[in-house]
Amino acid sequence: MLKLALEGTGFITAYDRTRVRDLGLPAFTEALDEQTALRVAVSQGLNVVVSGSLERKGTGYSLAMKATQAVTGNIIAVAEDSVSSKDQVLPIVTKVATAIRKSLGDDTSDSVKLFAMERLSTASLEAVHEYAKGMEALSNNKNDEAVRRFSKSVELDPDFGLADAGRAIAYRNIGEEENAEKYIKQAISHVDRMTERERYRTRGIFYFVTGDYVKCVEEYSALTARYASDASAHNNLGICYSYLRNLPKTIEQMRLASEILPKRLLYRFNLAAFESLAGDFQIAGRDARSTLQMDPSYEKGYVILAMTQLGQNELKEAAESYRKLETVSPTGASFAASGFADLALYEGRFSEAVRILEKGAAADLADKHADRAASKFAPLAYSKLLLGQRAEALSAAESALENSKDWKIQLLIGMIFAQTGEMAKARELSVSLASELQAAPQAYAKLVDAEIALADGKSRDAIRIFADANKLLDTWIGRFGLGRAYLADNAFAQADSEFDRCIERRGEAILLFMDEVPTYGYFPAVYYYQGRVRQGLKSPGAAKSYLTYLSIREKAGEDPLISEVRRLAGH
Q: Is the CB of residue 559 less than 8 Å from the CB of residue 548?
């Protein structure tokens, strides 16, 4: 809570023991006393150490704080106060913190400071303790423990919105989207009790979790304008830009975050991920490896490393990354199952993909992770469809919807329904997506509508609707659909442009939805359709596209397209 009180001014970013990992340091297992803090501050280029003590005196407490310049050891300020009961401890902490902030150069008026601190200090001391433990667990990538701590904090103080925000982040980190949305909605109802900085952060998290990425960019842009040294805000702003498919802005913000905190592993992982999505696989791979050496327990780090390896056609190396991920944690095992299945799907080993996905979904359901299970049922439906098993594909599609109403699930299953002739079900999902306010589901609704039109033989309508979807949100899957629609209309030059874009943007194909679930299995079909387009253009390059497709999927021998592609390639 002292950290939050100090950060109420724009020029202070505070690091307590829960945030030492932000500096690239291991978690402290012993006391972080003043001398240790001074050594850390000097080594990391931090300017000031704030230390203090809280001593019990009879039924009351005495509080003392001191601000020391790290390099010189000079004392900048000392502030003291005392209270007669435990209930008064938090108000006195915020009052003394106000004095320290003023000594460090805060020019905010006393009335504004005290008003902000008064709202900050209404949570119980016990709730604050659990919140601090939750933040420590979150910073150590112990998301399950973080959920328990934040939940206990809210149990102690049901109005403590910051704990609900922390709980939402932890659930988001483990792929529990519905719980993340539930708790961030609870958090946002308590913004009146937060400091200005925390209101910005909480609203930003709210917009991110609920998928309003335009508002998310707006909120975090305001936060970074007010608090330019807030590395977390730059990181989160970059993530929100990524969901708008603005990768240049994403990478710009990720680099700013990494420049502010060059040893913060999360920011380096994120930068590597988005470098990979932008197609810079070698640099991204180098960054991912170096950061995993520093923290081999970070599950998503292995997903990012595998992304970079897939982008460089290092399939065996990607499989090895998934094998390592499998041993890290139960969450890692679930992520790895999705990775192994995606590799199998990419190479045309459809039956193996089915086996892995069925087993993985069952394990997720047993562990009560419905969202993760749904993320396996969706590619399971696609795998069954590629095997020509329509009934089984539809069964898997229904299972996906039973376990999640996430927008990406509705999109993927809506496409399955359209491609299997279940038009009424596809339209139902389109209506559901279109009822949402945000740009992403609006675009996804149009993608489903376009697939319906394409399946009905209405290629001109499909072209128009795919183009409208791409104006709302320029996605890889939307470009792929538009290319297929142009091909169906014999507009070969236009189709060729779209498939070229798909190949140029193949980094995006590896993680279509910017999460921990790889989707590279959707990519090889681009070469098949490109071959058909080049054939329509009477280009000799058609054979090359077909041969590329065969080089990926021929060996497995399960793809029903193989015989056709061999014939077309003259192979």
A: no
- Give kind and range of the element (H or E) at residue 236: helix 231-243
Q: What is the pLDDT of residues 299-343, one digit of tens each?
A: 989 999 999 999 999 999 999 999 999 999 999 999 999 999 999
d(CA 452, CA 457): 9
What's the token pair of residue 145? 């423990």
DSSP string, 431-447: HHHHTSSSHHHHHHHHH
| Both tokens assigned to 213 | 């990425």
For residue 446, the one-letter residue type is K
Read off the pTM: 0.76
Q: Which parts of 420-561 fold into alpha helices (H)?
A: 423-434, 439-455, 459-472, 476-488, 492-504, 506-510, 525-536, 542-553
199, 278, 339, 481 from 476: Cα distances, Å: 34, 12, 19, 9
What are the C-alpha distances in Å from 64 to residues 55, 81, 87?
Answer: 9, 7, 17
- Sheet (strand 75-83) strand order: 48-57, 60-69, 75-83
Question: What amino acid occupies position 363?
Answer: A
pLDDT of residue 547: 97
Cα–Cα distance for residue pair 279/300, rounded to 1 Å? 18
The residue among 184, 130, 182 whose CA lies nearest residue 157 is 130
CB within 8 A of 94, min separation 6: which ones? 1, 5, 114, 117, 118, 120, 121
Give the pLDDT confidence of 111-145 residue by residue, as tens digits: 444 434 444 444 566 887 788 788 878 866 788 89
Alpha-carbon distance 478 to 490, whole Å? 18
Distance CA 537, CA 531 (A): 10
What burial letters (b/e) apply to 248-264, b meaning 16+ CB within 10 Å?
eebbebbbbbbebbeeb
Q: Domains plus CATH for the chain? A: 1-108 (3.40.50.10070), 407-523 (1.25.40.10)
Look-up of token digits 């199998």: 344
* Residue 273 and residue 307 in contact, taking contact as beta carbons nearer than 8 Å: yes
What is the pLDDT confidence band of residue 80, given thresholds at 50, 70 and 90? confident
- 160 phi and psi, to 5 degrees? -85, 90
Question: What sections of 261-349 are H helices per DSSP?
Answer: 265-277, 281-294, 299-311, 315-326, 330-346
Q: What H or E segment, with its residue span, contains residue 75? A: strand 75-83
**Strands (DSSP E) found in 7-74:** 48-57, 60-69
Cα separation, 137 vs 18, in Å, equals 8
Query: Do residues 125 and 89 make contact, with C-beta atoms less than 8 angstroms apart?
Result: yes
Query: Are 452 and 224 spatial neighbours (Cβ–Cβ below 8 Å)?
Result: no
Supply the Cα-derived Rg of the chain in whole angstroms.
26
SS (H, E, C) 122-155: CCCHHHHHHHHHHHHHHHCCCHHHHHHHHHHHHH
Question: 147 with 183: CB under 8 angstroms?
Answer: no
The answer to whether residues 173 and 166 touch, using CB atoms and an 8 Å cutoff, is no
Coil/strand/helix, residue 458: coil
Q: Which residue has the tokens 């006195």?
A: 92
Q: What is the mean pLDDT of the chain?
A: 88
Tokens of 113: 């400071």
